[in-house]
Amino acid sequence: MRTTSSPSPLPVDSLGYSLLLAARAVTAVIGGCNLPEALAAHAREPAATRAAAQDLAYGALRRFGRGDALLAALISRPLAQPEPRALLLCALYRLETRPEASHTVVDQAVEAAGRLANGAFRGLVNGVLRNYLRRRDELLAGLTGDEARYWHPAWWLGRLRDAYPADWQAIVDAGNTQPPMALRVNRRRCERDDYLARLAGVGIAARASGSVGILLDRPQPVDALPGFFDGLASVQDLGAQRAAELLDVAAGQRVLDACAAPGGKAAHVLELADVALTALELDARRAERIGENLDRLGLAAEVRVADCRRVSKWWDGKPFERILADVPCSASGVVRRHPDAKWLRREEDIAGFARTQRQILGALWPTLAPGGKLLYVTCSVFPEENREQVAGFVAAQAQAELVAEEQLLPQGDHDGFYYALLQKAR
Questions:
Q1: What residues does 255 pair with on adjacent strands?
Q2: Which residues sit opposite 405 in a β-bridge?
Q3: Domain boundaries in the chain?
Q4: What's the pLDDT at 226?
Q5: Nearest to residue 171, comparing CAs of 336, 346, 294?
Q6: C-alpha angle 107/112/117, rounded to 5°?
Q7: Consecutive sets of 10 residues in the chain, 426 residues long: mean pLDDT of each?
Q8: In the 8-state DSSP scheme, what is residue 198?
Q9: Which of 90, 190, 308, 379 is catalytic?
Q10: N or C: which end of the chain has fewer CB within 10 A?
């Protein structure tokens, strides 16, 4: 009697293994999980393997609209099982970006398919990918529809066209690129010029930007950054670095960071001035990251797990001179870093975010001292979460004055952010 044995494990340094890990992560995202959490399941894999799987998963999700349209043209009936679909999306991304390695990509994708459902999809994966290679020009020429062309959901594109008739395509194009990597130098421990020299000394090309920012020519693992674990610098987008600068803090002030995780903006505030900072975070695990980041940088704050809207649970009645409200939002300005957000969000979610934002503003305003300033922040480009939200609040709140407003659209050097600085009448 013949028996069949299970296929041997894929080598962890093989493309097939990385494709398999990436497919599992994309499957989790299709099921509703966010991508960082999905990739965290592979935290124990070797660093090079994790990096390869991450590139494949991020690339497949950035191009999800295009990849899905290609699969629709290549497969007569939609796949009921999510994992082979995700594997094909990752493999198509690799074939499009590494056409010179097409033979290897197909071979390794078939090897990865052999580890799904006892190898039932090996033939399907092989046939679909080879069919794509034979018909590539015809298939690409035949792609229609905005999702396939622009790699964003149709409703998302509609909102961008309405809000930014002259800039919407530039916003979309920026959202489809690899994100830049920027650093913020901890000026309590190092001068920027000194840190630039340290980077040059280890062969990392970079340039100064903003007041304490550095833009790397190419992204690097943090292990490669000199003095990173000694707190000399932090990874933070140049656009995000505007928050602490706009908040206008001074020594001795009481400052609240109401939605603080992972702590980058809170740390920047503490690097700028000796303030008494309280950092709130609703999620206990994310609150731990605030403490870890502050410890690395040699900074201190009171970190509390709390819902900033439930003021009676955490406020001692003493007003704050400055409040940073980096509120939950659609993340529409940072989709090149979070491509899963484009496909996890639904249009009706925007109204839900706007409702939460109103609740946070309303809850925090009474805790602000007369003459104090509150900085409202989102990483969104949708007006309903930004200027419309702030305009409605100022119209309803006689004591609130809008003293500064910035809408940063995503571009080469930075992501998309919105800032509104509100001052309370004395």
A1: 277, 322
A2: 420
A3: 15-145, 181-236, 239-424
A4: 98
A5: 336
A6: 130
A7: 56 96 96 94 93 96 96 89 96 96 97 93 96 96 94 97 98 96 97 98 97 96 96 98 97 98 97 98 95 97 98 97 98 96 95 98 98 98 98 96 98 97 97
A8: H
A9: 379
A10: N
Contacts of 191-196 with CB under 8 Å at 24 or more apart are: 195/226, 195/227, 195/232, 195/233
For residue 426, give every residue at least 6 positions away whose Cβ sits within 8 Å of its Cβ, in sequence order, or none: 370, 371
Assign domain 15-145 to its CATH superfamily: NusB-like (1.10.940.10)
| Structure token pair of residue 197 | 């020299």
**Model pTM greater than 0.90?**
yes
For residue 74, give the nearest of 55, 56, 89 by alpha carbon.
89
Tell me the CA distances in angstroms from 75 to 27, 71, 116, 137, 240, one per residue in order: 18, 6, 18, 17, 43
**DSSP-based three-state secondary structure for 292:** helix
> What is the C-alpha end-to-end distance of the chain, expressed in Å?
89
Cα–Cα distance, 105 to 136 (Å, whole number): 15
Longest CA–CA span in the chain (Å) reads 89
Residue among 322, 305, 306, 297 at smallest CA distance from 372: 322
Q: Which two tokens stand for residue 97?
A: 């970006």
For residue 358, the one-letter residue type is R
244 neighbors 275 (Cβ within 8 angstroms): no
379 is catalytic: yes
d(CA 263, CA 286): 9
User: Which CATH architecture is the domain 239-424 placed in?
Assistant: 3-Layer(aba) Sandwich (3.40)
- Of 353, 331, 354, nearest to 343 (Cα)? 331
Q: Which residue has the tokens 């069949």?
A: 4
Given this model, what pLDDT does residue 6 score? Answer: 53
The architecture that CATH gives domain 181-236 is 2-Layer Sandwich (3.30)
CA 322/CA 161 separation, integer angstroms: 35
